[in-house]
Structures are given as C-alpha cells and as structure tokens.
Write a structure and sequence with these properties.
The chain is an alpha/beta fold. It has 2 domains: 2-114 and 241-307, 3-Layer(bba) Sandwich (FAD/NAD(P)-binding domain), CATH 3.50.50.60; 117-237, 3-Layer(bba) Sandwich (FAD/NAD(P)-binding domain). The chain has 7 helices and 19 strands. The protein has helices at 13-24, 59-72, 121-125, 135-138, 154-164, 183-191, 288-307, and strands spanning 3-9, 30-32, 46-47, 57-58, 76-78, 82-86, 92-96, 100-109, 113-115, 131-132, 146-150, 169-174, 195-199, 201-207, 214-221, 224-231, 234-237, 241-243, 274-276. Strand 12 (169-174), helix 6 (183-191) and strand 13 form a beta-alpha-beta unit. The longest helix is centred in the last third of the chain and has 20 residues, at 288-307. The radius of gyration is 21 Å and the shape is elongated. The chain binds NADPH dihydro-nicotinamide-adenine-dinucleotide phosphate (NDP). NADPH dihydro-nicotinamide-adenine-dinucleotide phosphate is lined by residues 118, 150-156, 158, 175-176, 180, 202, 239-240, 283. Residues 118, 150-156, 158, 175-176, 180, 202, 239-240, 283 line the site of NADPH dihydro-nicotinamide-adenine-dinucleotide phosphate.
Length: 309
C-alpha cells in the first residue's frame, strides 16, 4: 500500500494552495483531484476579485495555474475521487475510486461545497450564459440589467441585496408565501426600491437565443398554477449549498448542514493530523481567497504535526 506524509483531497483553491505549501515544505504531498478537477471556480466565468490579478482571469485558467504551481514544487496531482476513509487509526487510510487504498500520516480535506440547483435542464444549457449560483462572482456582469434570484433564505436575500446595487431590477422568486430569511435580511430586501418579491412563484424553465432572455415561472394560486413570463438577463440560484463531506461524516463532527467543524480560527479537526480547509468547513465566506488561505493554514499545520511525530 502506498504511504504518504501528506494527502490532500480536493483540487479547488484550498487543495491546490495546501499542495503548494506542503510541496515547498518537502512533504511530498499527493493530491486527489476529485470529481471536478479545479473545483467550483472552473464553472464560473471571469474572476475579478482574486488578489494579484489586475485583469479579470478565467476561473479555469486560474485553477490551471494553481495546479502548475503546486506541481512545480513537487505535488503529485492525481485524478481520482475519494470514496471512503478509515480514520479510526493512524496512519489513516483512504480509498480512491472504490478500489485503491492508500495511507497517510496527515490528511487535508478540501473537498469544497456544491451549490444546489433546481435540477432544470435549462440550468445546464445556460451555465455561464445567464445562470449563476454566485452573485459576488458574477453580479458585476449584470450592471443595469434585470435579474432574478431564486430562494427565500438568508443567502437569497443577501444575493438580491448585493445585486440590487448593480442591476437595475431584481426579482426575488420565492416558492412559499413568506421568506425564511432572518428579519434583518427580510427588511433589507423589502426596503430596496428595485427588488420585487414574487411569492409563491417557481421557475420552470429559461429561454433565450445564446444567453438567458427570460424565465418561465408558475405562480401558485388557490385556483391552480398560472404561467408567468419574466423577461430577465440573468438567473441566480440561492437555494443553499451542500458541503462535499459525506465520506468523512462517520469520523468527524459536522454542523447540521454537514460542514466540517474545526477549532475556531484553525483548520484542525478533532482528529490529530486531519485538517479541513476551504468550503467544506466554511458556511460563511465561500470565497476563492478565503479557501486558499485556509489551505495554506492546513499545510502549515500538517508540517508542524509531522515535525512533532
Ligand atoms: P436556506 O436553507 O436557509 O434557504 C434556502 C431557501 O431556498 C429557502 O427559502 C428554500 O425554500 C429555498 N429553496 C430550497 N430549495 C428550493 C427549490 N427547489 N426551489 C425553490 N426554492 C427552494 O439556505 P441559505 O443558503 O439561505 O442559508 C443557509 C444558512 O446560512 C442559514 O442558516 C442562513 O441563516 C445562513 N446564512 C446567513 C447569512 C447571514 O447571516 N448574512 C447569509 C447567508 C446564509 P423554503 O423556505 O420553501 O424551504
């Protein structure tokens, strides 16, 4: 069985940054890239808020550069999806693609989170062409345009509020007759002059030549559903994220949404030598730069842990 000093699971900004630091610390890290090599950023368009990039950088390209940087310092980047782990004893064992088992002294979990989607075929058809699950990432492209945000929780209200400062008009599409968000967030959206809340509406489809030009909704009424045509330039999903932590849940504590719990301000989990970085342990910020920072912290922690072994 192969044995590694430092095994990194996940290839978003957290995983690659951990690999850069662990490589430079001579830990000979091995990184399994997972189902979506490069992570969530590879499906966004231009990234304008990653420091050191004065010109917008394509998400895919940024992740490619991080991969090359990690490889340059000796990280062994492999394709493969971690399907099971055994954290009951050290060295820890990790199963890849259901077949290969490897062992490691330290494990950095950087498996990220995935935005929830409605499950409509049109969401895929218009991905990067008017459909987004991140207003902070893509909102800038909708300046003075009309957009809709789906969801009634804090995320949706936050996204709608953020977009209301950029777009000329924001519809908030809520399936229930009320919002689920906290009072303060509700107040923020109801007081914004350019946010209109469409209660008891659900998105059924999108249309448009190349980019989204409108959404087909239904409005639930006591007498049945009524079709509604909503001309928009962009649709933002804000119906929650789910952290990709399923395989770790038997071993590590999570919050009720499944985010891994760490010692506050550090990537340390309750198990020695196992660290969690990036969105898998972060329900709050979910930014590339914060994920990268926590990947750095995790690699430094792994190095210190190995030095004391
Ligand atoms: P939530 O689970 O709180 O809300 C999800 C929203 O999406 C709900 O309104 C839900 O509707 C709706 N929804 C879910 N599935 C669908 C669907 N298929 N079609 C239409 N609507 C759907 O998720 P959030 O991401 O908003 O929040 C997650 C956690 O993070 C919460 O605890 C929240 O408080 C916290 N948070 C806090 C923030 C802050 O304090 N500033 C900012 C962002 C998040 P329904 O109500 O009908 O189930």
């Amino acid at each position: 069985m192969e044995h590694f000093k430092c095994l990194i699971i996940g290839s978003g900004p957290a995983g690659y940054t951990a690999a850069i630091y662990a490589g430079r610390a001579n830990l000979a890290p091995v990184l399994y890239a997972g189902m979506q090599p490069g992570g969530q950023l590879t499906i966004t368009t231009d990234i304008e808020n990653f420091p050191g990039q004065p010109e917008p950088v394509n998400g895919f390209e940024l992740m490619e550069r991080m991969r090359l940087q990690a490889q340059r310092y000796g990280a062994d980047i492999r394709s493969g999806n971690v399907t099971a782990v055994d954290f009951s004893r050290r060295p820890y064992t990790v199963t890849v693609d259901g077949t290969d088992t490897v062992e490691a002294d330290t494990v950095i979990i950087a498996t990220g989170a995935s935005a929830k989607y409605l499950g409509l075929p049109d969401e895929q058809k218009y991905a990067g062409a008017g459909v987004s699950a991140c207003a902070t990432c893509d909102g800038f492209f909708y300046r003075k345009k009309t957009v809709a945000v789906v969801g009634g929780g804090d995320s949706a209200c936050e996204e709608a509020s953020y977009l209301s400062h950029l777009a000329s008009k924001v519809y908030l599409v809520v399936r229930k007759p009320h919002l689920r968000a906290s009072q303060i967030m509700q107040q923020r959206v109801t007081s914004a002059p350019n946010i209109e809340i469409l209660y008891q509406h659900e998105v059924r489809g999108l249309y448009g030549e190349k980019f989204v030009e409108g959404a087909r909704l239904v409005r639930h009424t006591p007498r049945g559903d009524v079709d509604v045509d909503l001309p928009i330039d962009g649709l933002f999903l804000a119906i929650g994220h789910h952290p990709n932590t399923e395989v770790f849940r038997p071993w590590l504590p999570t919050d009720e949404a499944g985010y891994l719990l760490t010692t506050p301000g550090t990537p340390r989990t309750k198990l020695p030598g196992i660290f969690a970085a990036g969105d898998a342990a972060d329900p709050h910020y979910r930014q590339a730069v914060t994920a990268a920072a926590s990947g750095c912290q995790a690699a430094i922690e792994a190095e210190r842990y190995l030095a004391g072994m």
